[in-house]
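Hi R.,

Here's the chain you asked about this morning:
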Amino acid sequence: MCYDCLGKTNERVFIKNMEHLLLYIDPGTGSMLFTIIIGLVGVGVFFLRSLAMKLKFIFTGGRKTGKDPSQTEIAVFSDNKRYWKIFEPVFDELEKRGQSALYLTASPDDPGLSKEYEHIKCTFIGEGNRAFARLNFIKADIVLSTTPGLDVYQWKRSKSAKYYVHLPHAASDLTIYRMFGIDFYDAILLSGQYQADQIRALEKVRGIPEKELKLVGIPYMDEMKKRRDEALKNVEKTEKKTVLLAPSWGTSSILNRFGADFIRKLRDTGYKIIVRPHPQSFITEKEMLEPLMEEFSDLEWNSDNDNFDVLMRSDILISDFSGVIFDYTLIYDKPVIYTDTEFDKAPYDASWLDEELWTFEVLPKLGKKLTADNMDSLKGMIDELTESDAYAQGREEARKQTWEHRGEGAVRVADYLIAKLKELEEKKS
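And the predicted structure, written out as tokens:
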């Protein structure tokens, strides 16, 4: 054996392994480095912009030269195609009024990209960090989004954006966002007074400035109600009941708490079962979800971008603290079974407040609670709820609390955005 050759080979292997180690960056460090790089790039970009503005001022003698053509009046960001339904009614209203807007989506197959507008421009800005890198330097008067976490993680406020507005994507507690989810927005568009009370309580306990709060209603629920009313004219009732299981995600969700045992009991009812996991589960909970999908492959697993069809087809919903409960009960006027999942408030803004979540106060008015003790009576519970209308009054009470200005959501959001543009322009002048 050639020991010199062996020694050289080992040396090359060692060097190669060291190269791999040097190239490896763990996810946490990667996120930190991304933030540092974005910060450095930002300093350079804003320095160049500042220099350009000073030169422009010198060469024009200080005269006003008009609005910056690269400045967008209204920019709308969506981190996932499933939120197109949130923004489409608003865009339709802005289009009617001839108000321009820019829709920035992180989904290459977002339905908005194929919709034709005259005044609304829709564009794909990349996924993940690529999208946030674009947003962090956006030049806009108003940035509207349903995405929480502004200025908390990779998504930073742009120094060239004047005003950030949050539009919720569910008719429920805003304190079920992950920690500090909406702290750094300038304004929140709400659908119920209890949401305003929660935000003011959070601001007080954290000692942060008050945001602008505006009650506008829920544009997407208005549109879904119209679709539902039209679809009811042609709906065909089937004899076999259809049960929709649509949980939220995270450690407190149904699938994480009860898992295969619960799905097995559900299947044993003999009814048609549709399981619609939260979209985030397909991303961050694959290890939990994939074995369940394999074991219960005889059930219908739904991941449609638009949930209208499954909500229409089903007779009853089983969920936990997911916002789909309120879509289902308030729009489709159907009963729900909600589960006792021992909700852990720790990761959420709700953990800062002593008050009970509105969601858990109103749920007993909308349906029955499923616990480990009554799980064997699941079939009887489904039959009782689907064959009576005992919770109709409770559903109407919930509508009044969380769905103000019904039918007016898109108009009121458009009114607000246009008025805010005028206000910002007047302040600038």
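The first strand starts at residue 72 and ends at 78.

Let me know if you need anything else.
M.
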